[in-house]
Design a protein that fits this description.
The chain has 1 helix and 6 strands. It has one domain (9-72). The chain is α+β, with helices and mostly antiparallel strands. The mean pLDDT is 79. The chain is elongated and about 60 Å long. The N and C termini lie far apart (63 Å). A hairpin with a 4-residue loop joins strand 3 and strand 4 (27-29).
Length: 84
């Protein structure tokens, strides 16, 4: 049994289907003929936060304008403001 990690978690008991884990190259490879499932080694899950900011030039202007119109003039099927 491994001692607990300082961060994250060790996961064991996983199986992989239609592939195999090669311990030598530490990669997934094609499965052996006739073998459907193979056990995976202990996996260390190490969480971390990704902060991704989308530059404004990548956001389509039309989409932004449509969202603003939807928020400002939201009306139901009868043409009435649902907030009133």
């Amino acid at each position: 049994m491994l001692p607990p990690p300082l961060d994250g978690a060790y996961i064991y008991g996983l199986y992989i289907e239609s592939a195999r884990w090669c311990a030598k190259s530490q990669t997934l490879q094609e499965q052996e003929p006739g073998v459907m499932l193979q056990t995976m080694p202990v996996v260390h899950f190490l969480p971390f936060e990704i902060r991704h900011v989308v530059p404004k030039q990548l956001v389509p202007k039309k989409k932004v304008e449509e969202q603003k119109q939807d928020e400002a003039g939201a009306k139901d099927a009868d043409g009435k403001d649902p907030k009133s």
